[in-house]
Amino acid sequence: MxxxxxxxxxxxxxxxxxxxxxxxxxxxxxxxxxxxxxxxYLEIGELVAVEGPTGGFDVGHVSLTGELVRIQMKRRKxxxxxxxxxxxxxxxxxxxxxxxAAKGMEWETMHKARKLALDLRLQMKISDVDYQADKTKAxxxxxxxxxxxxRELIKKMAESFRIRIEMRQIGMRQExxxxxxxxxxxxxxxxxxxxxNFKTVSTAAARYQNLSLNTxxxxx
Length: 220
Known about the structure:
five-stranded antiparallel β-sheet, 220 residues, three-stranded mixed β-sheet, GMP Synthetase, Chain A, domain 3
């Protein structure tokens, strides 16, 4: 199929300024907005080094640029003054090496954390670990039926891993989105590929489609 870009020769207005916010995608379909104050030319899919939540840096993929970001911010009800973190640079070879090294630690860290939680007899399941690229912080995602007092667990994990710890409770659908899998349709789960909004699935919608009223299935 032949494709032609009809806008390729269109000149931008002389007073046009590119939108200075870029959407960056991280592990587990997490997407955040960052300021591109230095007007770095970025393309979709490129790796960039960005400001971490509590300092340091992280690495992610460019998922959206230009005016489309403005539309996405409006859709998510994010005001421009709420975007404070910035893009440092296109990821260098050294940045990517550190990022890959951090990601390589996640599996072992998760299993060690699970053992610590088991030793403390906590009613929780640690589902995933997300290291910041500079290895100064890790976010531990867990599922549990209720509230969990994990203060002692955080203390032990900080001693064991020597990093800043953040614990984040997620539901079953978020867990499926992070870990991935195959749905009953035979395709990769929507929540792990493109779906980012986890809207409530009503039993009325399930009845209308003649689906099973299994609560776990409705929850993803």
